[in-house]
C-alpha cells in the first residue's frame, strides 16, 4: 500500500510540473504578443503615414513630364503675343501643361460646377468666380501663325500679332475640393461623382464663366485648376470630330492659398505644404516645348477679392486655332 501511495505522489508531482510548464509557456507567449502589439501601436509611423493625408487622400501626382502631346496638340500653342483690336487687349504666350490623370470626358455643360448632379450635394468652400477669355491668332484669313520654337519671354523682340476671340470652343475645367479630393476617382471612393467639373462654350467674345469654389491642395502638388480647350467639326462633341486640343493649368498666389486655408472648411485639411515654386510642374518646361522653365509664371490666375467673401478670377488664353 505504501508503494502505491508513493507512485501516486510521484505521478502527481510529474503532472503538476507539466501543467506549470504549459502555463508558463502560454504566459510568455502572451507577454511577447502584448509587447509586439504595444510596440506596433506606439512605434513611429512611416514618413508617408505621418503626412496630413486622410484615409481618402488622393494619390501622389505622377511624374510631371510624362505627357507626350500629339502633333495636333503641339500646333495648338503659339509663341506669339497678340493684340485684340479694337480694344487693344494684349494676350501673352499661354503654354500648355500636363493634363494629368484626373480628366473625365462627357462632363455637364454648366456654369455653376459646385454641385454634384448625381445627388445635388453642394461642395462647401470660398466662392470663386472665374472668367476665361480665349483668343486665337489671326493672320487675316490665311493659315494661323505658329512656331514651335522656344520663346524668350524676357526679350523685347517677341513680336505681337493681331488676335480674335475664339468663339464656339469647348472649355473644360476641373479641380480638387477643399479637402484635396477630385470627383470621379475610384481610388478615393468618388467614382460616379461629378462635382467641380464642367464645360462651357465660348461666346462671340471668346468668353466663358464658371462659378466654383477655391480649390484645395493634395499631396505632391501646388494648388491649381485644370483647363482644356477643344473644338469639333460642326461644333459637336466627340473625339472623332475633334479638330483642336489645348490643355494647361492655372495657378493661384501662394499668399492667398495660405490665407484661404486658415478658414473653414479648408483648415480641416491643414495649410498647403507646397508653394508654387516647390512644384515641379510649375517650375518645369511646358509640354509644348515653348517655355523651358518656370512655366507656371505664365499661368497665374488674376485674383481679386469680391464684395462678398469670395474671389473673382480672370485668365486670358492665346492659342493657335484653325481658321473659322
Short structural summary:
With 324 residues, the chain is α+β, with helices and mostly antiparallel strands. Helices cover 19% and strands 23% of the residues.
What does this structure look like?
The chain is of the alpha+beta class and 324 residues long. It is built from 5 helices and 11 strands. Strand 1 (81-84) and strand 2 (89-91) form a beta hairpin. It starts with a helix and ends in a 5-residue tail after the last strand. Residues 24-56, 61-66 and 141-158 have low confidence and may be disordered.
* Number of beta strands: 11
CATH class group of the largest domain: Mainly Beta
CATH topology of the largest domain: Protocatechuate 3,4-Dioxygenase, subunit A
Individual helix count: 5
Low-confidence stretches: 24-56, 61-66, 141-158
User: Could you say what the CATH architecture of the largest domain is?
Assistant: Sandwich
Look at the structure and name the CATH superfamily of the largest domain: Aromatic compound dioxygenase
Largest sheet: 7 strands, mixed
Ends distance: 120 Å
Integer tally of domains: 2
What is the typical, i.e. mean, pLDDT? 78
User: Pairing-aware structural class of the strands and helices?
Assistant: alpha+beta
Outline type:
elongated
The value of Rg in angstroms is: 30 Å
Order of helices and strands: HHHEEEEEEEEEHHEE
Beta fraction: 15-25%
Please give the share of residues in helix.
Answer: 10-25%
Amino acid at each position: 500500500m505504501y508503494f502505491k501511495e508513493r507512485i501516486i505522489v510521484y505521478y502527481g508531482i510529474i503532472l503538476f510540473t507539466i501543467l506549470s510548464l504549459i502555463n508558463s509557456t502560454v504566459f510568455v507567449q502572451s507577454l511577447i504578443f502584448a509587447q509586439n502589439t504595444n510596440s506596433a501601436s506606439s512605434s513611429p509611423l512611416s514618413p508617408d503615414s505621418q503626412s496630413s493625408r486622410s484615409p481618402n487622400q488622393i494619390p501622389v501626382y505622377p511624374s510631371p513630364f510624362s505627357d507626350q502631346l500629339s502633333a495636333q496638340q503641339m500646333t495648338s500653342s503659339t509663341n506669339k503675343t497678340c493684340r485684340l483690336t479694337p480694344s487693344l487687349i494684349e494676350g501673352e504666350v499661354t503654354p500648355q501643361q500636363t493634363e494629368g490623370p484626373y480628366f473625365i470626358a462627357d462632363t455637364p455643360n454648366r456654369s455653376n460646377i459646385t454641385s454634384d448632379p448625381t445627388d445635388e450635394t453642394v461642395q462647401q468652400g470660398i466662392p470663386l468666380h472665374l472668367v476665361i477669355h480665349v483668343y486665337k491668332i489671326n493672320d487675316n484669313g490665311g493659315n494661323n501663325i505658329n512656331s514651335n520654337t522656344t520663346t524668350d519671354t524676357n526679350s523685347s523682340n517677341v513680336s505681337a500679332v493681331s488676335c480674335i476671340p475664339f468663339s464656339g470652343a469647348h472649355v473644360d475645367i476641373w479641380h480638387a475640393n477643399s479637402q484635396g479630393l477630385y470627383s470621379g476617382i475610384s481610388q478615393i471612393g468618388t467614382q460616379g461623382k461629378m462635382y467641380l467639373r464642367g464645360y462651357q462654350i465660348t461666346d462671340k467674345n471668346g468668353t466663358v464663366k464658371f462659378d466654383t469654389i477655391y480649390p484645395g491642395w493634395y499631396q505632391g502638388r501646388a494648388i491649381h485648376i485644370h483647363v482644356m480647350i477643344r473644338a469639333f467639326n460642326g461644333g459637336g462633341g466627340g473625339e472623332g470630330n475633334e479638330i483642336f486640343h489645348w490643355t494647361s493649368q492655372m495657378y493661384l498666389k501662394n499668399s492667398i492659398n495660405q490665407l484661404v486655408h486658415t478658414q473653414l472648411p479648408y483648415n480641416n485639411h491643414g495649410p498647403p505644404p507646397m508653394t508654387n515654386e516647390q512644384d515641379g510642374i510649375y517650375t518645369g518646361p511646358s509640354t509644348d516645348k515653348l517655355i523651358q522653365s518656370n512655366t507656371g509664371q505664365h499661368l497665374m490666375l488674376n485674383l481679386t477679392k469680391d464684395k462678398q467673401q469670395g474671389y473673382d478670377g480672370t485668365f486670358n488664353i492665346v492659342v493657335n486655332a484653325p481658321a473659322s
